[in-house]
């Protein structure tokens, strides 16, 4: 709640123009052509590269802090979910060849939220010590391309995402226990007046006659509801706060407040659309072309303003094409 109070106090900050962000990104990297071949030997690369339509960056682990509201220049209310990046660092990289295939699998293991040594197993203490990072509470691995591998110990920040782009958020939905068919599946129920004796919210008949005389697998019936891993795609990033390490995402994200959420670049809207445009010879849209590559580090966040806003929804050319 204290974090939301700080957010509400800064909700009317004047939006930062996009050219300030682009200038900061230009100071941090040198553009070069990169080609990712599946036959290359694995391993992280130390040279600075440019994001390509086929590149796939690592994601971030964030903590859901709640929801609040922002207002654009036209006074339109924007409901946003506040996500906090808590000391997110790279702990390991993985490069293996899949069985019976020629392709290499590349992954970046990311961990966040420092954890006390007495609450960490000996095996994980050695793993984190090898990476040169403190003990962490949450560990997750993101699949990446070869040109997006990072050195262990790299600290990631909210500058990894550019306001105006789209992300996919994965979280564990709130568990609701054992529920009936009306709540879980939206069944209409039975008659609530005459002819139905104390079975108003019943599912009704579930089987058939003698042939086949059974209930088919997959039938929608009463059961446990919630507690599943839900991925919400194509969420718009409205603002990033480099001072408090906060990400403002338009809309709702699955999970309870205080739960962990995995964020990464939107697969459908950014990667697939960009690859189609690249095949047609069309330049990718601005939020995609200006992504920090291979990742947005803490050093990059120090060069940006404390609060960076996305363009207003009416003026954003990326949303105007939808």
UniProtKB/TrEMBL annotation:
Database matches in SUPFAM superfamilies: Translation proteins
Gene Ontology MF terms in the entry: structural constituent of ribosome
Transmembrane segments: none
GO terms (BP aspect): translation
GO cellular component, one term: mitochondrial large ribosomal subunit
InterPro entries named in the record: Ribosomal_uL3, Ribosomal_uL3_bac/org-type, Transl_B-barrel_sf
Sequence segments annotated as region (Disordered): 34-54
Keywords from the named record: Ribonucleoprotein, Ribosomal protein
Keyword Ribosomal protein among UniProt keywords: yes
Bias (Low complexity): 34-48
PANTHER family assigned: 50S RIBOSOMAL PROTEIN L3 (PTHR11229), LARGE RIBOSOMAL SUBUNIT PROTEIN UL3M (PTHR11229:SF8)
Similarity-based family: Belongs to the universal ribosomal protein uL3 family.
Annotated protein name in UniProt: Large ribosomal subunit protein uL3m
Organism: Calocera viscosa (strain TUFC12733)
């Amino acid at each position: 709640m204290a974090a939301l109070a700080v957010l509400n106090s800064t909700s009317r900050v004047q939006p930062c123009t996009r050219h300030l962000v682009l200038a900061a990104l230009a100071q941090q990297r040198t553009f070069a052509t990169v080609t990712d071949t599946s036959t290359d030997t694995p391993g992280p690369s130390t040279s600075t590269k440019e994001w390509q339509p086929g590149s796939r960056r690592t994601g971030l682990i964030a903590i859901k802090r709640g929801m609040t509201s922002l207002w654009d220049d036209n006074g339109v209310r924007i409901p946003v979910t506040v996500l906090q990046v808590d000391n997110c660092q790279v702990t390991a990289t993985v490069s293996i060849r899949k069985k019976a295939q020629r392709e290499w699998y590349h992954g970046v293991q990311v961990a966040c939220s420092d954890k006390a040594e007495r609450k960490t197993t000996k095996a994980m203490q050695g793993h984190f010590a090898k990476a040169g990072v403190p003990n962490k509470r949450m560990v997750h691995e993101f699949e990446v391309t070869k040109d997006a591998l990072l050195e262990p110990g790299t600290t990631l920040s909210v500058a990894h995402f550019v306001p105006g782009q789209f992300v996919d958020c994965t979280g564990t939905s709130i568990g609701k226990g054992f529920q009936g068919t009306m709540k879980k599946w939206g069944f209409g129920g039975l008659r609530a007046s005459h002819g139905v004796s104390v079975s108003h919210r019943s599912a009704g008949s579930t089987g058939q006659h003698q042939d086949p005389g059974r209930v088919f697998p997959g039938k929608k019936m009463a059961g446990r509801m919630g507690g599943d891993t839900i991925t919400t795609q194509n969420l718009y990033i409205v603002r990033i706060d480099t001072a408090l390490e906060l990400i403002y995402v338009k809309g709702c994200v699955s999970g309870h407040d205080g739960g962990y959420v995995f964020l990464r670049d939107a697969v459908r809207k950014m990667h697939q659309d960009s690859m189609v445009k690249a095949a047609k010879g069309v330049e990718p849209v601005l939020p995609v072309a200006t992504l920090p590559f291979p990742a947005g580090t803490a050093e990059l966040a120090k060069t940006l303003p404390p609060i960076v806003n996305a363009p207003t929804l009416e003026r954003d050319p990326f949303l105007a094409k939808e």
